[in-house]
From TrEMBL:
Organism from which the protein derives: Caulobacter flavus
Protein name per the record: UPF0102 protein C1707_02355
Family membership: Belongs to the UPF0102 family.
Gene Ontology MF term list: nucleic acid binding
InterPro entries to which the protein is assigned, alphabetical: Restrct_endonuc-II-like, tRNA_endonuc-like_dom_sf, UPF0102_YraN-like
NCBIfam families cross-referenced by the UniProt entry: PRK12497.1-5
SUPFAM superfamilies in the record: Restriction endonuclease-like (SSF52980)
Transmembrane region(s): none
Length: 134
């Protein structure tokens, strides 16, 4: 019996990762709603990049990055500086172009999903990135 080609293995792993990511995003959205956030959308594609969850609380537009990792530290480290800048640009674009969101402050949050634990929401997860993007 021969092993399946590497391409097929990657295809199966990729599909499993996408399903797992969608599940994590659904749990994350439910968690945010329980905390009083208004979820505006999932997996929103913009010219600047994809937003996992776009939420609102008061006059703040929140771009939520969802990461499933073994620890909060691993989830924080999984989002590179370049990815954070893309997310900030995508949030600013959403705030500028979507009806009812113009002029809102944009914040970047992390929602970390770890096995066997409640989700961990980190508001303004990367404040030290600077605010030159705003």
């Amino acid at each position: 019996m021969t092993a399946p080609p590497l391409r097929e293995i990657r295809k199966v792993r990729g599909a499993a990762a996408r399903r797992s990511g969608r599940r994590a995003e659904a749990w994350a959205a439910a968690w945010l709603m329980l905390k009083g956030y208004r979820v505006l959308g999932f997996r929103l594609a913009t010219r600047a990049g994809e937003i996992d969850i776009l939420a609102q609380r008061g006059r703040v537009l929140i771009v939520v990055e969802v990461k499933s990792r073994t620890s909060l530290e691993a989830a924080l480290e999984a989002v590179s500086f370049e990815q954070r800048m893309r997310l900030r640009r995508a949030g600013a674009l959403a705030a500028a172009t979507r009806a009812g969101l113009k002029g809102m402050a944009v914040r970047l949050d992390l929602l970390a999903m770890t096995p066997g634990r409640l989700p961990r929401h980190v508001p303004d997860a990367w404040p030290d990135d600077g605010r030159a993007w705003a």
